């Protein structure tokens, strides 16, 4: 992060005597540490305390202790073992005493040579290790020790009370070897250039960077560790937020065509024919979007909305406003099923307004075309022609929209649905199709905690839709413990039959498709008895094809059951969805292809099989497919996991709240941030080391404000060379591209 020459030194050269080429190679290959600076920023994961000094008479079992004692006796034994069959095995047994009692130390193998030479009878030393029992006697196996030569009490106290850093290590390089290497490079920490402006550091009472590095690697007290972590968290949060603030600042300088809707154009005509009123939230968010569209800089906005909060309606109104203003709007969906679904619902919502250029179309109307990879050649040619001539004001498609062949007449707005499924490169390619950068609206139905939004989508302004439209029904969710209470599962199928009997429909979701391309089950069966948790984990996940077959022949016999999964031909998928939407199918057994965007208001029940195999956000998404009409929704989460397991607790959390933001916090606390931050944290150097996005909410929010102020005052950071250096290290090439395209 602070690549001044001393810290830029590659580990392979300056420290040959210490690290040696082999150690430097392991550090580079397994830990991504190439320079002295990298090593200094490889922070301890935790700290061991050697333990308070203990008398041998009262040693606690299974605890780490430190004792000061004299060697009474030392004996080297040889023995035969599997590793040393010819009696070449070596064991050193040392007996120590402190006047209050005696204790045996034991060393094995190659570890015997040094203590055999050093621990001679009469030697005083400090010994630290974990107390265990062998042959009914207390012992320390392979203890760390330090010989006491000058025997000052101070040495004893400081050695015993020392905090020993434990580093993220690999099988090839133990923590203590990393500690030794750090000991060598630590003096260069004095040369670390501080990325934080002095005013910020002093205003928040943070220690300097050299001091923080010394304290994190060689703390004398727990307060040292706290000081260091508080400071290093700020580095991570601030440098990342400065990168994002500069991105926002640069975007604000780009030119774009302002798109202001005509006072009585397509948007007005659309609003007039809506059979319901928009929610306050939809109106508020629409205003934020229209204000952005009216400026001559490209909008970059993230629209977060709970499942079913009416995001599509907000996006459609933004697209109509753009068409009103003479531009075209493109909506990117992650799957063909979803693109077709969006196309169908947009055309339905617009009615004759979507019949531009056709007989029966009204004066204010435009053409809405669909473009996917599996379309027939003729339909595709016509769609491409409508786009290049400007005949089609709105296009909805998959990444087929990004292909070189696709040309727009005047692309004004890009709406990306379900951001987490869309690569940055794809957004970038579509952006390049406008004469000037088009406005960008990213929609996500996965609620993202505020701090993650600030960290991952920090270059986007955020709008949140948290009201559900009128007429949406509550969803009751329950965990069905199939292993503990099989009769609960039977009752679940009865509930499905009841819903269908009342004229409704149901989904059954499974984690797997179940044809032979799927993963085979593990053939290795061990004879050991497994715990119920293991049993549930080891069994292959339930599959759509098998479950559909069992249900049709068993508990749901007589109902119209169909299957839907990602490996079906697009036309077949579309046909299945149409039949389900039309009410010609009672129960749809599907994989997560229904997770986003599928809208069938008559579907009221969902049974998720092996629910523990899905993530929290995914379950929340799936559940949002029911209760979309006036009848109440029911979601049953079936699992074989035992009650005390973490998986069961996760499901109980999902069943207990419909608040997606609350669930996203739970999800994030249970997983590592890396999984959530995903590609935004690409590049080894930039991954968060001490910053935790949930716990450090305040630091991130404050760092964002400070970063915005710094960038507004000095966009090129000419006054802050230390910060520039830190940014260059953070934005290695790959990451620079990521933010460029973000």
Describe the structure.
The chain is an alpha/beta fold. The strands form four sheets. A seven-stranded parallel beta sheet has the order 11-12-10-13-14-9-15, with helices on both faces. Helix 14 links the parallel strand 11 and strand 12. Helix 16 packs parallel to helix 25. The longest helix is centred in the N-terminal third of the chain and has 32 residues. 41% of the residues are buried. The N terminus and C terminus are likely disordered.
Number of strands: 21
Cα-atom radius of gyration: 32 Å
The gross shape turns out to be: globular
Q: How big a fraction of the residues is strand?
A: 15-25%
Short description:
This protein has 742 residues and is α/β, with parallel strands linked by helices.
């Amino acid at each position: 992060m602070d690549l001044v020459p001393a810290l830029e030194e590659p580990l392979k050269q300056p420290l040959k005597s210490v690290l040696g080429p082999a150690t430097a190679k392991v550090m580079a290959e397994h830990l991504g540490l190439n320079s002295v600076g990298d090593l200094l920023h490889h922070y301890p994961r935790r700290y061991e305390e050697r333990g308070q000094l203990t008398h041998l008479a009262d040693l606690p079992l299974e605890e780490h202790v430190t004792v000061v004692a004299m060697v009474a006796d030392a004996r080297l034994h040889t023995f035969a073992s599997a590793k040393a069959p010819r009696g070449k095995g070596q064991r050193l047994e040392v007996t120590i005493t402190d006047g209050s009692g005696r204790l045996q130390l034991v060393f094995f193998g190659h570890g015997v040579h040094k203590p055999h030479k050093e621990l001679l009878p009469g030697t005083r030393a400090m010994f630290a290790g974990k107390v265990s029992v062998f042959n009914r006697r207390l012992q320390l196996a392979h203890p760390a020790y330090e010989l006491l030569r000058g025997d000052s009490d101070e040495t004893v106290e400081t050695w015993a009370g020392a905090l020993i850093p434990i580093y993220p290590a690999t099988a090839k390089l133990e923590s203590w070897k990393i500690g030794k290497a750090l000991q060598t490079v630590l003096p260069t920490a004095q040369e670390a250039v501080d990325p934080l402006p002095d005013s910020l550091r002093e205003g928040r009472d943070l220690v300097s960077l050299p001091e923080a590095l010394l304290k994190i690697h060689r703390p004398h007290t727990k307060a040292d560790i706290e000081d260091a972590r508080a400071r290093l968290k700020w580095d991570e949060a601030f440098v990342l937020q400065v990168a994002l603030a500069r991105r926002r600042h640069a975007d604000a300088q780009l030119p774009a065509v302002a798109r202001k809707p005509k006072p009585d154009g397509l948007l007005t005509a659309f609003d007039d024919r809506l059979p319901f009123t928009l929610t306050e939230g939809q109106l508020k968010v629409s205003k934020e979007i229209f204000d952005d569209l009216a400026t001559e800089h490209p909008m970059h906005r993230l629209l977060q909305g709970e499942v079913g909060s009416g995001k599509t309606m907000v996006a459609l109104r933004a697209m109509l406003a753009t068409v009103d203003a003479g531009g075209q709007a493109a909506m990117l969906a992650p799957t063909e099923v979803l693109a077709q679904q969006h196309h169908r619902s947009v055309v339905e919502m617009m009615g004759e307004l979507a019949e531009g250029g056709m007989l029966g179309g009204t004066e204010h109307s435009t053409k809405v075309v669909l473009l996917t990879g599996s379309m027939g050649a003729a339909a595709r040619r016509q769609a491409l022609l409508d786009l290049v001539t400007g005949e089609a004001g709105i296009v909805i498609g998959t990444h087929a929209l990004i292909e070189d062949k696709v040309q727009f007449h005047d692309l004004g707005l890009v709406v990306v649905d379900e951001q987490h499924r869309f690569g940055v490169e794809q957004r970038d390619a579509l952006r390049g199709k406008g004469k000037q950068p088009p406005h960008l609206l990213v929609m996500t139905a996965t609620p993202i905690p505020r701090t993650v939004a600030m960290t991952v989508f920090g270059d986007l302004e955020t709008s949140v839709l948290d009201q559900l439209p009128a007429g949406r029904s509550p969803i009751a969710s329950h965990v069905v413990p199939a292993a503990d209470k099989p009769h609960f599962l039977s009752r679940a199928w009865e509930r499905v039959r009841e819903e269908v009997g009342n004229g409704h429909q149901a989904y059954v979701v499974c984690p797997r498709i179940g044809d032979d391309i799927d993963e085979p089950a593990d053939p290795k069966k061990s004879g050991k008895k497994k715990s119920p948790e293991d049993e549930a984990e080891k069994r292959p996940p339930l599959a759509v094809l098998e479950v559909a077959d069992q249900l049709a022949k068993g508990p749901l016999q007589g109902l119209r059951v169909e299957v839907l999964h990602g490996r079906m031909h697009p036309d077949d998928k579309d046909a299945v969805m149409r039949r389900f939407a039309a009410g010609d199918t009672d129960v749809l057994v599907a994989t997560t292809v229904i997770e986003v965007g599928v809208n069938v208001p008559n579907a009221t029940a969902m049974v998720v099989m092996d629910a523990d195999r899905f993530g929290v956000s995914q379950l929340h998404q799936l559940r949002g497919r029911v209760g979309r009409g006036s009848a109440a929704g029911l979601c049953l989460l079936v699992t074989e996991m035992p009650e005390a397991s973490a998986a069961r607790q996760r499901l109980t959390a999902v069943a207990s709240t419909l608040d997606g933001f609350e669930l996203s916090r739970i999800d994030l606390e249970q997983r590592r941030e890396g999984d959530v931050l995903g590609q935004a944290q690409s590049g080894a150097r930039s991954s968060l080391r001490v910053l935790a996005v949930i716990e450090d909410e305040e630091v991130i929010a404050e760092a964002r404000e400070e970063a915005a102020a710094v960038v507004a005052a000095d966009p090129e950071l000419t006054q802050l060379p230390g910060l520039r250096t830190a940014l260059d290290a953070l934005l290695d090439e790959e990451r620079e591209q990521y933010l460029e395209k973000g």
